[in-house]
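Propose amino acids for all 308 sites.
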């Protein structure tokens, strides 16, 4: 039996070809299903926790044994019909409610920081590549300067100094601050190869201004690589938020996040491994799904970048 891919209709555009190719890949279908699952979990976190009957901050002392250091009662960390994923040791807080609300916090920070990175990086890359000269020099040096900082150390320092602020907003801004130069360099290279194409020269001769050329001719040309690299940026943002929360400078209790839950579970991994495994598995699956999806999009939309 032949396993060749179905023929692509003649005259198909690049986005039609991309959709056709993505439908052929089993890994992409599984990754999209995992991403959709956690996205729905994040959006519907209040509804899901209400369905489970517990809020993420609600204590259930009857679910832990005070004579055994607050260990959950029952097997697998206290998993039961009342607590679907068990409970936290000592506090008795419902782990299902904290996981779904942790997904909301972690993905919100990751998506918002990615949006900042993509918008700032795309704008800076297009401006540097199209205008060249002094604009390119200034923006390129700014990219080099930002990338030269040990970003994780600066993030830890900035998050430690700022105290009475919204931690979610601060983390989003700090992560976005150090993330834009990478995509800016990709967009700058693409813009340099596009600005001398025939259709761009024709638009320039026809009297189109820089803004019209950038938005109508250059931006659609860099959209493919930007989308591909955006998908690859997201897992890094999720991991960065988890790392900062794990180190204690990110989201603070009682607001849950996956990194914070993993940090708290380390003290109980030998007596209650379920508490450690569940948020770690959620983080692992989300990062893996976005990584596989990003790799597939990069191979299809930016094949030259995938070979470098």
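Proposal:
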């Amino acid at each position: 039996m032949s396993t060749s891919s179905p023929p692509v209709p003649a005259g198909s555009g690049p986005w039609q070809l991309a959709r056709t190719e993505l439908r052929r890949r089993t890994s992409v279908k599984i990754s999209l299903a995992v991403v959709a699952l956690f996205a729905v979990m994040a959006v519907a976190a209040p509804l899901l926790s209400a369905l489970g009957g517990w809020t993420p901050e609600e204590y259930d002392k009857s679910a832990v044994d005070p004579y055994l250091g607050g260990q959950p009662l029952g097997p697998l960390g206290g998993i039961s019909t009342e607590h679907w994923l068990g409970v936290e040791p000592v506090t008795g807080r419902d782990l299902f409610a904290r996981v779904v609300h942790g997904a909301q916090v972690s993905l919100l920070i990751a998506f918002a920081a990615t949006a900042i990175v993509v918008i700032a990086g795309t704008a800076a890359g297009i401006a540097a590549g199209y205008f060249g000269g002094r604009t390119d020099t200034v923006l390129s040096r700014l990219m080099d300067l930002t990338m030269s900082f040990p970003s994780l150390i600066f993030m830890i320092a900035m998050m430690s100094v700022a105290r009475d602020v919204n931690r979610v907003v601060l983390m989003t801004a700090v992560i976005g601050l150090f993330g834009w130069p990478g995509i800016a360099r990709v967009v700058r290279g693409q813009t340099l190869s596009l600005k001398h194409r025939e259709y761009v020269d024709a638009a320039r001769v026809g009297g189109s201004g820089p803004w019209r050329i950038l938005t109508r001719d250059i931006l659609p040309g860099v959209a493919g690589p930007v989308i591909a690299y955006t998908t690859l940026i997201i897992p890094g943002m999720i991991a960065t938020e988890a790392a900062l929360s794990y180190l204690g400078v990110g989201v603070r209790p009682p607001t849950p996040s996956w990194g914070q839950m993993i940090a708290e579970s380390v003290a109980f991994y030998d007596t209650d491994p379920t508490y450690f495994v569940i948020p770690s598995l959620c983080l692992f699956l989300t990062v893996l799904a976005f990584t596989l999806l990003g790799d597939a999009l990069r191979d299809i939309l930016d094949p030259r970048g995938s070979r470098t």
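The chain has twelve helices and two strands. The first helix runs from residue 14 to 24.
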